[in-house]
Amino acid sequence: xxxxxxxxxxxxxxxxxxxxxxxxxxxxxxxxxxxxxxxxxxxxxxxxxxxxxxxxxxxxxxxxxxxxxxxxxxxxxxxxxxxxxxxxxxxxxxxxxxxxxxxxxxxxxxxxxxxxx
Length: 117
Prior knowledge:
The protein is an alpha+beta fold. The protein has helices at 2-22, 58-61, 83-90; strands at residues 31-38, 44-53, 69-73, 76-77, 97-103, 109-115. The strands form two sheets. The chain has a four-stranded antiparallel β-sheet with strand order 4-3-5-6. The chain has a two-stranded antiparallel ribbon with strand order 1-2.
């Protein structure tokens, strides 16, 4: 009977540790995008512009500006990045980062790294 309790206890502890690992806190990037895409079943992004920033949010802290054109999300170039890939690349847990290659209104291209909050 003690062996059964020990095994059950070990299994429960393993379950608790696994659940805690899976329950990472979702992060927020702090921006709203204007996205143009082609395709219905497997859309591909044609262009992305920053439409709005959360005041004091992660994107604003990283120096992203309203009107910036996003040319790349991580290593996924726009135009041509599959929409599902872009969505997955931007899903970050708190503390994780995503990089954007952006083109500002004056034509300057910069890489900005946003750390999800």
